[in-house]
Design a protein that fits this description.
85 residues
Length: 85
C-alpha cells in the first residue's frame, strides 16, 4: 500500500512574521458570512521554518512565478513598485 499524503487548502496567508528565530506563515481560509455578508478570514494552519528554509522556499516560488509569466498565465504589473523595465 502506498504512503498516505495530506493536502492542506488555504485561501491565502493571513500573516507572515519572524519570531523566535523562525519564519511563521499563518494560513487562512475564508468562511461564509451570515445572511450574505462578506466572508471572514479564519486562521487554519501555521507553517514554521528556519530562515534558510524560508529563503529556499522564496527562491522556488520566484522561479515558479517566472515560469507562469513566461507561459502567459500571469502578467507583470508595469505600475508595481520595483517592476522590471
Amino acid at each position: 500500500m502506498g504512503s498516505v499524503k495530506q493536502e492542506i487548502y488555504a485561501d491565502g496567508l493571513g500573516q507572515i512574521h519572524f519570531a523566535g528565530n523562525m519564519v511563521r506563515f499563518d494560513f487562512m481560509t475564508l468562511q461564509p458570512g451570515a445572511d450574505g455578508a462578506a466572508p471572514t478570514p479564519e486562521y487554519s494552519q501555521r507553517v514554521i521554518m528556519p530562515p534558510q528554509g524560508f529563503l529556499a522556499a522564496f527562491d522556488s516560488m520566484q522561479q515558479l512565478i517566472n515560469k507562469l509569466v513566461d507561459a502567459g498565465v500571469l502578467r507583470k504589473n508595469p505600475n508595481a513598485p520595483n517592476a522590471e523595465e
